[in-house]
Amino acid sequence: MGWKTWSLVKRGLNGTYISVEPFHLFRYLDEQAFRYNNRKMDDGDRFDIVVRQIVGKRLTWDQLTGKQQDRPSAPPD
Predict the structure, then answer these.
(1) Does 40 reside within a domain?
(2) Is residue 49 part of a domain?
(3) In angstroms, rounded to a whole number, what is the distance separating the alpha carbons of residues 12 and 31?
(4) CB 30 within 8 A of CB 50
(5) What's the number of domains the chain is made of?
(6) Claim: this prediction has a pTM higher than 0.85
(7) Does the CA dihedral 18-32-61-72 come out positive or negative?
(8) Residue 72 is assigned to a structural domain of this protein
(9) Which domain holds residue 43?
(10) N- to C-terminal Cα distance for the chain?
């Protein structure tokens, strides 16, 4: 990635969030990539895409905070 890319990411993160935690950095970057890739759409169209993609998915507080892995481990024998 070039310096222009990182400049856009840095500006987007600093302009949107008060604090960025390293643990969640990939989520922040995914959001910024989504915004950039859909920048020609209006807010309503972007919201519609997001709502369609989250149907049937569940994110628990423990998964969000890293207390539980995304995939449960196999039960012990």
Answers:
(1) yes
(2) yes
(3) 10
(4) no
(5) 1
(6) no
(7) negative
(8) no
(9) 24-53
(10) 46
